Amino acid sequence: MAASILAKTERDRIMTEYHRRWPQYGFDRNMGYPTAAHRAAIRIHGPAPIHRRSFKGVVVAGDPEGGAAPDRPGDADDDAPVANAL
Questions:
Q1: Domain edges within the chain
Q2: For residues 47 and 57, what is the distance between their CA atoms, to the nearest angstrom?
Q3: CA 8, CA 19: separation in Å to the nearest integer?
Q4: Shortest CA distance to 28 belongs to which of 20, 36, 53?
Q5: Contacts of 37 (CB under 8 A, 6+ apart)
Q6: b vs e for 8-33, b when ≥16 Cβ sit within 10 Å of the residue's Cβ?
Q7: Residue 69 burial (C-beta neighbours within 10 Å; 0-12, 13-18, 19+)
Q8: Is 70 exceeded by the pLDDT of residue 34?
Q9: Residue 33 has pLDDT above 90, yes or no
Q10: Cα dist from 51 to 3, 4, 44, whole Å
Q11: Which of 10, 30, 55, 73 is most buried as measured by Cβ atoms within 10 A of its Cβ?
Q12: Residues 61, 72, 86, 65: what is their CA dihedral angle, to the nearest 10 degrees?
């Protein structure tokens, strides 16, 4: 149980850092969970570099299918911590 609390605390810290970099997604409020506001921000702004392109909820602007784009090498900032929970 203590490990899960530590993991959540660390994930929340990472999501807060993501919010500093990409405030338009509201990571400080949704902590990466696909809330309606988070999904709307992805539709408006497109995915941030840390969004998983393989997740069906991550739509890419200009995709007529409204589907996810494949992960592409170099999409994420190499210095950014990447939480795979998005």
A1: 1-70
A2: 10
A3: 16
A4: 20
A5: 26, 29, 30
A6: eeeeeebbeebbeebeebbbeebbbe
A7: middle
A8: yes
A9: no
A10: 25, 23, 14
A11: 30
A12: 30
**Look-up of token digits 């899960």:** 4
Question: How far apart, in whole angstroms, are the C-alpha atoms of residue 9 and residue 31?
Answer: 11
Instruction: Locate 14 and state its tokens.
Output: 């990472």
- For the stretch 35-71, pLDDT in tens is 999 999 999 999 999 998 887 778 665 554 444 444 4
CA count, 13 A, side-chain hemisphere, 26: 14
- Two structure tokens written together for 47: 């995915």
Q: Where are the alpha helices (DSSP H) in 1-86?
A: 2-21, 27-30, 36-45
